[in-house]
Write a structure and sequence with these properties.
Blueprint (H helix, E strand, L loop, with lengths): L1 E5 L2 E5 L1 H8 L11 E4 L2 E3 L1 H9 L8 H10 L3 E3 L10
Antiparallel strand pairs: 1-2, 3-4, 3-5
Helix pairs in contact: 2-3
Length: 86
Amino acid sequence: MMRVTIARRHFYIHAIEVEQAMSGVTPEPVAGASIKIGGITYPPMQVGAVVTRQDRRDFSAGEVIRAMRALGFSCETGANSNSGGI
């Protein structure tokens, strides 16, 4: 169990609880940052909303990414998604 902070609130959760919460959730389109949970890629705001049951306006994608990384999930910030090409 790990304590993570999202939207100034502390949550004590296991990685398996995140996996269970996201199981069966259809991923929204990913445009930048992403979190891979159970082999599926989700946008951080969707993960934050499902896991914390808070309004998406209450937290940032960065908070969710930091928390999910601490729990051992693979996260991309989206910084490498811009190819800068033609």
